[in-house]
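Predict structure. Chain length: 308.
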Amino acid sequence: MDSRPDVSVVIVSYNTRELLRECLESALCGQESNGAPAVEAIVVDNASADGSAQMVAEQFPHVRLIANPDNRGFGAACNQGLEAAQGRYALILNADIRAQPSALRRLVQFMDAHPDAAMCGGQLRYPDGRIQPSCARELTLWWVFCEQSMLAKLFPRARLFGGYWRTEWDFSATIETEQVMGACMLLRRPFPRFDEAYFLYCEDTDLCYRVRQSGGRIYYVHDAVFVHHLGASGEPQRAQMVIYYNRGKERYFRKFHGAWQARVCRWLNKGGALLRVAIGVLGTAFTLGRRPRLRQYAATFWQVWRGS
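Prediction complete.
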């Protein structure tokens, strides 16, 4: 009889102590109840300065804690957790996510019932209950253009412009998809590894692309629900987060589609930053400076333009 846990929940933490506590409680709660999967939890802390690692050690002594002396980035920390994982499956889960009752069980049930599935992801919701797009089509330069020109935001229900994150859809059915968000990603053994050259963002896009290239199938499971406090660890450093995201996209295109597509992506990213600077500057002028957020918006994307 297989004595391994059903699922190893791998959580990378960085300065999200209180949300991490909620995440662990939700992942571990009810694991002894009838029909619930047997769970092991692994926290990889990337040198948090808010006492996250100490909290885990003191309040969750049965959780495997890997405390890095410095911030190794998301993909590298995930790989550390995957190397330690003993479960039949491994769930990559952001520290700012709270699993709803039966969510883990539903993902495990789906993978057990679909041996063709290499990975799957659940439905993510914002804390106010709105659905957060969490599965996407393959990343292309067209989708980068739609994002940076703001067409995707202006016309989210149009398949032509909002199709990357499937925002023309209501996320109400389980489907096969090109990629799921790394914030909630269940993997089948043998566990694929993330490319550690991505520090933050697009490492999940890269992983999903490689899984599909090797013949694996990816699914979005609509009735496995998780609440996601999106960007909790990065909000105070928004400009740097956007720069990481832009660099991740450029690396993805360079790696899989060549240098010229990476260059086009870079100029789309820079053009998108300048567009947002202009919106912030014009908004500040039209409101006579009475809305500081517009001035901050312009300053943030000026930093993005300079850093991209």
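Summary: The chain has three domains: 7-134+171-228, 139-168, 235-307.
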